[in-house]
Amino acid sequence: MLLKIENLHVSIKEKEILKGINLEVKRGEVHAIMGPNGTGKSTLASVIAGKEIFDVTQGKIIYKDKNLFDLSIEDRAREGIFIGFQYPVEIPGVSITNFMRTALNEIRQYRGETPLNAIQFMKLMEEKKKVVELTQKLSERSVNEGFSGGEKKRNEIFQMAVLEPELAILDETDSGLDIDALRIVANGVNQLKTKENATIVITHYQRLLDYIVPDVVHVLFDGKIVKSGTKELALELEEKGYEWIKKEYENGTF
Predict the structure, then answer these.
(1) Which of 2, 14, 124, 152 places its Cα 20 to 30 Å from the Cα of 131?
(2) Each residue's pLDDT tens digit, 124-155
(3) CA distance 2 to 98
(4) SS3 letters for 15-56?
(5) pLDDT tens per residue across span 27-68
(6) Distance CA 156, CA 165 (A)
(7) Where are the beta strands (DSSP E) in 55-120?
(8) What is the DSSP letter of 85?
(9) Bigger pLDDT: 177 vs 208
(10) What does the alpha-carbon distance between residue 93 and residue 88 come to, in Å, rounded to a whole number?
């Protein structure tokens, strides 16, 4: 088991957001987490990443047989966790090239591997740019500075390609993307899938799942995963809407 979440309760300023999340993710799997706004999807991603504004009041997260809460934010990244957030941060004055080389060499050093020199990294970068059709001009700019929404998301998947995480969590990667950008980003995610890694895709809409086909779909509502199923569950959600989930949940069907 790559990731196991047991009875996770999370609050912020004494308001409970996650109310008992249970989730298991194996290597080689793609999981989709769907649900309306305000149900805790982004909170779950943030807690896994290690954001300190949240209070974990109950439960645990085991990642690669380690207690995730014993690991710092930096060590979670070094251990192979990658988070692609809905609103990627701009880092003015720091080129994508320097940023990514530093990040990759931190991970390599943590694993006891030799850091890549400038020539080795540039060769790797040229190879990985093809995954998301990243242009030379874009790669020379500061991290996300002045990028469009589509460029920011494409840059996130490029970073994922370079770092080769074991667990990637993509929080609403499809938000604000047109059809062409969505296709490029989704194709990049699909190319990076292996038997040894896993991906969790957080989304509102089924359209992303036309491109990234999940093994399991989970519906998160009122801070809990209320229903899980195959990719057909996403189609059912698209057809019936989230009001269907609300009614079934309130009626105690789930």
Answers:
(1) 2
(2) 998 998 887 877 666 667 676 667 767 777 78
(3) 30
(4) EEEEEEEEEEECCCCEEEEECCCCCCHHHHHHHHHCCCCCEE
(5) 999 999 999 888 899 999 999 999 889 999 999 999 999 999
(6) 12
(7) 55-63, 66-67, 81-84, 91-95
(8) -
(9) 208
(10) 16
**pTM to 2 decimal places:** 0.91
Q: Are 144 and 99 in contact (CB under 8 A)?
A: no
* pLDDT tens-digit readout, 84-130: 876 666 677 878 888 899 999 999 999 999 999 999 999 999 899 88
Cβ contact 248:254 at 8 Å? yes
For the chain, the average pLDDT equals 89
- DSSP 8-state assignment for residue 165: -
Looking from the CA of 55 toward its CB, the CA atoms found within 13 Å total 7
- The DSSP element (H or E) to which 151 belongs, if any, is helix 149-163
Q: How far is CA 118 from CA 98, 101, 115, 123, 142, in A?
A: 9, 8, 10, 9, 18
Judge whether 226 and 245 are in contact, CB under 8 Å: yes
Structure tokens at 24: 């298991």
Distance in angstroms between the alpha carbons of the first and the last residue of the chain: 26
Contact between residue 25 and residue 167 where contact means Cβ atoms under 8 Å apart: yes
Query: How far is residue 113's CA from residue 239's CA, in Å, rounded to a whole number?
Result: 49
At residue 28, what are phi and psi to the nearest 5 degrees? 90, -5
